[in-house]
Amino acid sequence: MKAIQFIRNSSDTGSAVEVELPSPSPSGHDILVKIEAIGLNPVDYKVRPAEGNAPKTLGFDASGIVVGTGEDVTLFQKGDQVYYAGDITRPGSNAELQLVDERIVAKRPGTLDAATSAALPLTALTAWESLFNRLQINLDTPEKNAGKTLLIIGGAGGVGSIAIQLAKLAGLTVIATASRAESADWCRKLGADHIINHHENMAPQLGELGMKTVDYIANFNEISRVWEAMAEMIAPQGSVVLITGHEDHLDLAGTFKLKSVNICWEFMFTRSMFKTDDLIEQHKILKRVAQLIDEGKLRATANESLSPINAENILEGHRRMESQKAIGKLTISGWE
Q1: What's the pLDDT score for residue 191?
Q2: I want to staple 73 with a disulfide (CB 3.0 to 4.6 A). Which of 51, 69, 177, 195 is the partner?
C-alpha cells in the first residue's frame, strides 16, 4: 500500500516521502479502513519524528470504507463508511489502508461526503470530552444550564468551532475569543453570543459585556499568556479545562486556590492510549455527533480542502497548521 512518512521533524519538502508498505490485516477488534480523506490538526506536526528517529506514518482524523474486520468486530461490516480520530500509539491515516480499533470509530454522517466528515472526529471528541466529561456540563438538560456562561479561548480553531456549537446546544451563554475580523465572523456564524480578543486584556472586555466572571473556561489555545487572566475571570468554584502543554511555571496556589477552582485536562487520546474500560465511549460520541450533523443541529467545520493525498499537500497542510491562523479545519482527499 502507498503511505506518506515523515523522516525528520521539519516542514522541508524532503521531510515527507511516499513509500510502499505491506498492507495490514485486521484481527481482534480492529477494522481495516480504505482511507478516502484525512483531516489535519496541530498534533500532526507536533509529533513528527526528531532527526535520526525512525520514520513515522502520521495522521489522525480520517474517513473511509471498511474493507476488512477482525474476528471480534461486532460494530461494523465491509462496505460501511466510517470516520474516526485514530490512536496516537499506532500508525496513522496518511496511508491508503489503516487498522483502527472499532471502539473508537463510528459510521460517518450520512449527509456529508468523505472530506467533510474527515474534518470532524478529533475536534468533536476533544470538544465533547472537554465540555461534557471534564467540565461535567449536561448536554441533555439545557434548561438547567440557562444563565451559565462559558468562555472559549481559541473559538475559531477546530476544537473551538465544535465547542461553540455544542455549548449552545447545552443552553450556555458562549463568549468566544478571536483576534481577527474573519475569525470573529466565523465564531458568530457558529453561534457565539459574544466575541472578545485574546490578544488584548480579556477581563475588561468581559466587564464591558456586563460579566465580572464566567462559570466555565475552555482554553483551546496557549496557556501561559492567559493564565492570570483566567484566574481573574473564572467564578469562585468554577471549572477550567485545558488541552495544550506549557513550558512556564503556573501558579496553582494563588487565585485559583482561593476560588476553589476545578482545573482539569483533556487529552483525546487518553482512552485509546491506556485502553481504558470505557474505550467504546468514543464510538458512542462520534455516533451522537453524526446524528446531530444529520439532524442539522451541528454544523461541519471543514473550511479548506486540498487534493490529492500526497507528501506535497500534507506538508502544505502542516505549514498552514503551524501558522496558527487556521479557521475551522483543513482536509485532504483522494489518492493519485
Answers
A1: 97
A2: 69
The CA-CA-CA angle for residues 88, 271, 50, to 5°, reads 20
What is the spatial distance between Cα 117 and Cα 110, in angstroms, rounded to a whole number? 9
DSSP-derived letter for residue 254 is: S
The second-level CATH assignment, the architecture, of 2-120+275-333 is: Alpha-Beta Complex (3.90)
The set of residues, in sequence order, having a beta carbon less than 8 Å from that of 45 and lying 6+ positions away, is 11, 318, 321, 322
Work out the pLDDT band at 129, boundaries 50, 70, 90.
very high
| Comma-separated ranges of CATH 3.40.50.720 domains in the chain | 124-265
With bands split at pLDDT 50, 70 and 90, how would you rate the model's confidence at 228? Answer: very high
**Which ranges constitute the DSSP H helices of the chain?**
42-46, 114-118, 121-128, 142-145, 158-169, 181-190, 202-208, 227-233, 255-258, 270-274, 281-294, 311-322
Task: List, by residue range, all CATH 3.90.180.10 domains of the chain.
Answer: 2-120+275-333
Quick one: average pLDDT of 79-83? 98
- Name the pTM for this structure: 0.95
pLDDT for 13-56, tens place per residue?
668 899 999 999 999 999 999 999 999 998 988 888 877 788 99
d(CA 26, CA 101): 9
Alpha-carbon span 33 to 106, nearest angstrom: 12
CA distance 260 to 267: 23
Amino acid at 269: F
Q: Are 38 and 305 in contact (CB under 8 A)?
A: no
Peptide bond into 22 cis (omega under 30): no
pLDDT, tens digit (0-9, with 9 covering 90-100), for 132-163: 999 999 999 999 999 999 999 999 999 999 99
